[in-house]
Amino acid sequence: MIVALDKKSYSNLAGKTDLEELTEIYNRASLYIGGDTGPTHLAAAVGLNVISLMGPTDPDTHGPYGEGHTVIQDNSLECIRCWDRHCSRKLQCMKSITVEQVLRIAKQKLEV
Questions:
Q1: What pLDDT digit, counting tens, does each position of 25-80 carry?
Q2: Is the pLDDT of residue 5 over 60?
Q3: Domain membership of residue 46 as a residue range
Q4: Which residues of 86-102 are buried (b: 16+ CB within 10 A; e: fewer)?
């Protein structure tokens, strides 16, 4: 998804690009926000500034590689880093990450 912070428009490119196209998009971007996914790791690999939203996985072993990336994870939960794909808490670790929290960090990284 491509979003301009100062506009209400966006382009959802989920499932519409191959790796080469995705890399080209990343080369033109200033910031990437995503979960613990392949596209997040690709963004980090091409040097894009990454904000990674982490839930039940461990950012020390599965977070974005390289310097300057930000991981957002609710470490106050006792079940954090549980690796439970069938979470009885309905992935509270992901739901506890707020839009406001992510937007604040994104604006800081972009110096808006």
A1: 999 888 999 988 889 999 999 999 999 998 888 888 888 888 889 999 877 777 77
A2: no
A3: 2-110
A4: eeeeeeebeeebeeeee
Q: Which of 97, 16, 15 is nearest to 53 (CA)?
A: 97
CA distance 39 to 36: 9
Beta strands in the chain (DSSP E): 2-3, 10-11, 32-34, 50-53, 70-72
Extract the tokens encoding 40. Answer: 């997040």
CATH number at residue 53: 3.40.50.2000
| Two structure tokens written together for 103 | 């937007």
Q: Encoding tokens for residue 75?
A: 């470490």
Number of domains in the chain: 1
Average pLDDT score, the chain:
83
Residue type at 17 in one-letter notation: T
